[in-house]
From TrEMBL:
Protein name: diguanylate cyclase
Domain of life: Bacteria
Ranges annotated as spanning the membrane: 293-311
NCBIfam families (UniProt xref): GGDEF
Record's subcellular location: Cell inner membrane
GO terms for cellular component: plasma membrane
Length: 487
């Protein structure tokens, strides 16, 4: 009965914690997405109102010029081979304007005098603005049938369709065919379409240009749909569980911007209206909410079994302490023991062997010509030489042996249950293995000199090391003399 009651109470606590966490996660995710979508909406409306301001400025410039003698300020070229007119298409390089002019066929006289407007448009487009989305400007003249776009495009990048100004899809996007109600804000959003230059799916924000109260063209901003997607910052965990799309209300068309792999039951739906026809939606699957709430539920479970958790922490603390002790007696470069173990582990090992009347030997190892390697090849290669020596010592030793880096290029190997004669054989193997193996990309080798001794029953390890060191230096002198004789 008591156990059943505990299970019931725990279940109630877990369910309550689960419901609270799910609600909080839904609220936090909703708030996060609303903030992102609000930034997108704000950026698009900023572009729209700025575009409206540009349209008014250009309309004023057009009307002022209509009251004066038209004058061509830039050269408009005819490209018969392209069936186009314009400039900055890579055909002539004498034009300093930043944009590209593209029209169909030969330019009309009015198109030639229209050029006074392009420097004005360039100046407007040159304003620096920092927004979360990418965009490109353009101006289109219905009267003279040309486009002026904000970047330079060579003729190899795209060809303007010869009937573009006659197609139904294009005409439906023109301000000329929009109602007064649609134009009263000074701008409108087009339906998404494929851009003829980038081949990306885009939509445009357009504002009409007037001359004597008649619409003669549009100035617009092209916004790639992918730009909207990239402007929405999402946690990595949310990528597979979110569905973002544009809803074109007039056509009931869904334009998918991002669709995760795991959309089963949308529990969050955030939307923002952009302009008069476009909704941007973000839907989040319930599994993301459950995954996000899981850590908090786990915390509740941990609190329920607090005693076991505390015991686990105590055990972990012990392991950590052992790790710290091991690190304190380990050489960082080679991974071998450092000389601190001589006064702890080695002393205890020697004492155990004494009690059991077993031999203990040691090998002292010193690198030959280590200073020359450092001087000639640098300390990185010197470190590689030390690692090479230490790895061979470790590989050729037994699990019961103690491998020590005494300091610098000097090493020591403590060998329990080994006589001096056996130690000499191991030392010979070490010398051969180290000297015959290349250890770096340079074609160089290193070698060692060793000395062996058996620790006496009444002798300390320090005294044994002193004896071995003396023998080591004698061995190095003998090696040097033998080398000189061979020269």
């Amino acid at each position: 009965m008591k156990n059943s009651l505990i299970i019931l109470v725990n279940s109630i606590v877990i369910l309550f914690a689960l419901s609270i966490n799910i609600r909080n996660e839904i609220e936090n995710t909703t708030s996060y997405l609303e903030s992102n979508l609000s930034i997108i909406k704000s950026s698009l409306l900023t572009l729209a109102y700025r575009n409206e301001r540009y349209a008014k400025y250009i309309s004023l410039a057009v009307n002022n010029n209509n009251n004066q003698l038209g004058q061509s300020l830039v050269t408009v070229h005819h490209y018969p081979e392209l069936n186009e007119f314009g400039f900055n298409r890579g055909q002539y390089k004498d034009n300093l304007l930043n944009g590209t002019l593209v029209g169909i066929g030969e330019p009309s006289p009015s198109a030639l005098t229209d050029t006074f407007i392009f420097p004005t448009i360039d100046d407007l487009w040159a304003e620096k603005h920092h927004l979360n989305i990418n965009y490109n400007y353009y101006y289109v003249s219905y009267l003279n049938e040309y486009f002026y776009v904000s970047s330079k495009y060579t003729s190899t990048l795209f060809r303007l369709p010869s009937n573009i100004f006659e197609t139904q899809d294009y005409n439906e996007q023109r301000s000329y065919y929009k109602s007064e109600e649609e134009l009263k804000k000074g701008f409108y959003f087009s339906q998404p379409y494929i851009d003829i230059v980038t081949k990306q799916k885009i939509f445009s924000i357009k504002s009409p240009i007037y001359s004597n109260d008649k619409i003669i063209g549009d100035i617009g901003v092209d916004v790639p749909l992918t730009s909207i997607t990239s402007a929405i910052t999402l946690p990595k965990a949310l990528h597979s569980s979110i569905f973002i799309y544009l809803d074109a209300m007039s056509t009931q068309q869904e334009i998918i911007l991002r669709k995760g792999l795991h959309i089963f039951w949308p529990i969050i739906d955030v939307q923002k209206t952009i302009g008069d026809f476009l909704h941007i939606h973000a839907e989040v699957d319930i599994r993301y909410v459950l995954r996000s709430a899981a850590p908090n539920i786990a915390l509740v479970l941990i609190l329920i079994i607090l005693l076991n958790y505390l015991m686990m922490r105590v055990e972990r603390h012990k392991i950590q302490q052992q790790t710290y002790k091991k690190e304190a007696r380990t050489d960082l470069l080679t991974g071998l023991y450092n000389r601190r173990v001589l006064s702890s582990i080695v002393v205890n090992l020697i004492e155990e062997c004494r009690i059991s009347y077993n031999a203990v030997s040691l090998i002292v190892i010193d690198a030959n010509g280590f200073k020359a390697i450092n001087d000639n090849y640098g300390h990185d290669i010197g470190d590689a030489a030390l690692k090479h020596i230490s790895s061979q010592i470790f590989l050729l030793s037994r699990s019961t042996d103690i491998c020590i880096r005494l300091g610098g290029d000097e090493f020591c190997l403590i060998l329990p249950y080994v006589t001096q004669a056996q130690a000499l054989k191991l030392a010979s193997r070490l010398e051969s293995s180290i000297s015959t193996t290349r250890f770096c990309h340079h074609d160089i080798y290193t070698s060692i000199t060793t000395s062996c001794t058996q620790i006496q029953p009444d002798e300390t390890v320090d005294n044994a090391l002193i004896r071995a060191d003396k023998q080591l230096y004698q061995n190095k002198r003998n090696r040097y003399k033998a080398y000189k004789k061979t020269e």
